[in-house]
């Protein structure tokens, strides 16, 4: 099942008409389909674990950190990839800790390091310079380094290519042996390795290519230092199609190619087979979430513009990365189209985030619209601006719907601010 279905021009999420959801929760609202998240996870897990049983997924919570969403992935068996101390705290608040959590922050402050160490999760160091700073607090039981294998890719633009010479992440391949040598000399006994090279990739061969690159780098270090690896984490990046004519990632083929590349390298370098790990996010939640919005005004000026409450503060990806999201108007599916624009309500022209696209001619004020594939990097990247506050989040599971985060109010906008005494006169 998809995140949403269409029956007689009406959009449904689970058993709900979006009209009903809009009446109950208002707009703009992020709506996630629980069953779709579970399906996405299970499809990917069954593919990878069938080719390599000692396999585990960690969910990168940055993509959608609502505790209800994270709990679904926890129930499915995922650990957590945390980018900050607060994301570690989120994992812990849901009962995930220790080796079920990877801390993959970068350019960490001393406080991040101290709190990261105290949290007892797996530390994944983005640079060799962090090692002495961690050792100041303790000798971790297990330690990982993030490697930049020199190659990255993204189907949503260079903005989200996380490896290669132009990326800020990870150790240069030439530093890897030195990093593990120092860690071993410091008395660390168990090792892991990590990379995260790109996001939203839909070519299976790519994942095998970067796995090969990483295994070559790490295999040599393992041999030279006579160390074993407990785990090898090849990152996230499993892509989804955003445009209607794009193909889905062949997850079976991806898993098969990655596992065979991995097993070959393990054998070639005589390693004790490590656990294989991945930390996708978009693949699990991306197509399971939509933003439900409303048309508030239609204007005919230099061009026709449909004004909605889905501004760049609600869904920033198009304005930020030039990313594409499909737009569907409830009740207007398959109506005759014309080229026009679509915008939000902010006082910035980047908020005019679709300048020209074919939309139904029949769209009227008050119509509901859906921006699809918004479950990943949607709500998490939303912000307050122009007094337009963050939207609500709703989870749908078949016949049930749950408000999992209320819409922000004026009180949220001014929460914890204060006015110095002299300004009150
Ligand atoms: N692991 C690490 C260390 C990451 O930094 C990320 C995402 C992931 C895993 C999950 O990647 P995924 O499977 O979702 O590709 N905001 C951008 C995407 C930025 C990705 C950042 N890192 C977007 O909206 O497309």
Gist of the model:
This protein has 12 helices and 22 strands.
Question: Overview of this structure, please?
Answer:
The termini are far apart. Strand 6, helix 4 and strand 7 form a beta-alpha-beta unit. The chain folds into 2 domains: 158 residues, Beta Barrel (Lyase, Ornithine Decarboxylase, Chain A, domain 1), CATH 2.40.37; 252 residues, TIM Barrel, CATH 3.20.20.10. Strands 4, 15, 16, 17, 18, 19, 20, 21 and 22 form a 9-stranded mixed β-sheet that branches. Strands 5-6-7-8-9-11-13-14 form an 8-stranded parallel beta barrel, surrounded by 4 helices. Helix 8 packs parallel to helix 9. It is α/β, with parallel strands linked by helices and 425 residues long. The chain has 12 helices and 22 strands.
Bound molecules: ligand LLP
Round the Cα radius of gyration to an integer and report it. Answer: 23 Å
CATH topology of the largest domain: TIM Barrel
Q: What fraction, in percent, of the residue positions are helical? A: 25-40%
β-strand amount: 15-25%
Largest sheet: 9 strands, mixed
* Count of structural domains: 2
**What is the CATH homology-level superfamily of the largest domain?**
Alanine racemase
Mean pLDDT: 96
- Based on DSSP secondary structure assignment, what is the total number of beta strands? 22
Low-confidence stretches: none
Distance between the termini: 60 Å
CATH architecture of the largest domain, please? Alpha-Beta Barrel
Structural class: alpha/beta
**The CATH class of the largest domain:** Alpha Beta
Question: What is the general shape?
Answer: globular
How many DSSP H or I helices?
12
């Amino acid at each position: 099942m998809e995140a949403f279905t269409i029956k007689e021009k009406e959009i449904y999420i689970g058993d709900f008409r979006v009209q009903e959801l809009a009446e109950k929760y208002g707009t703009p609202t992020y709506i996630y389909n629980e069953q779709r998240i579970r399906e996405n996870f299970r499809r990917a897990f069954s593919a990878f674990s069938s080719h390599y049983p000692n396999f585990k997924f960690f969910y990168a919570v940055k993509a959608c950190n609502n505790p209800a969403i994270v709990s679904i992935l926890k129930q499915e068996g995922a650990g957590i990839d945390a980018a900050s101390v607060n994301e570690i705290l989120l994992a812990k608040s849901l009962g995930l800790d220790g080796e079920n959590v990877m801390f993959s922050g970068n350019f960490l402050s001393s406080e991040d390091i101290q709190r990261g160490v105290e949290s007892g999760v797996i530390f994944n160091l983005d640079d060799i310079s962090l090692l002495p700073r961690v050792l100041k607090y303790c000798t971790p039981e297990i330690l990982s380094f993030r490697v930049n294998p020199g190659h990255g890719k993204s189907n949503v633009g260079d903005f989200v290519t996380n490896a290669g010479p132009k990326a800020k992440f990870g150790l240069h391949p030439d530093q890897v042996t030195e990093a593990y040598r120092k860690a071993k000399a410091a008395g660390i006994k168990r090792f892991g390795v990590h990379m995260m090279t790109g996001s939203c990739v839909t070519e299976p061969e790519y994942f095998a290519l970067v796995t090969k690159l990483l295994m070559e780098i790490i295999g040599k270090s393992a041999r030279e230092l006579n160390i074993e690896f407990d785990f090898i984490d090849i990152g996230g990046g499993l892509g989804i199609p955003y445009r209607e004519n794009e193909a889905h990632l062949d997850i079976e083929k991806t898993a098969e190619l990655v596992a065979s590349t991995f097993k070959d390298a393990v054998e070639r370098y005589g390693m004790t087979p490590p656990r294989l790990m991945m930390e996708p996010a978009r693949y699990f939640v991306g197509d399971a979430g939509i933003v439900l919005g409303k048309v508030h005004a239609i204007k005919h000026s230099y061009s026709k513009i449909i004004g909605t409450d889905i501004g760049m503060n609600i869904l920033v990806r198009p304005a930020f990365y030039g990313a594409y999201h499909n737009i569907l108007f409830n009740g207007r599916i398959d109506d005759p189209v014309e080229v026009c624009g679509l915008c939000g309500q902010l006082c910035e022209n980047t908020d005019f985030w679709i300048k020209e696209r074919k939309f139904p001619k029949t769209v009227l004020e008050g119509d509901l619209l859906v921006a699809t594939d918004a479950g990943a990097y949607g709500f998490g990247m939303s912000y307050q601006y122009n007094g337009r506050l963050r939207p609500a989040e709703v989870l749908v599971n078949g016949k049930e719907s749950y408000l999992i985060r209320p819409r922000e109010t004026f009180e949220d906008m001014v929460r914890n601010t204060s006015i110095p005494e002299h300004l009150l006169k």
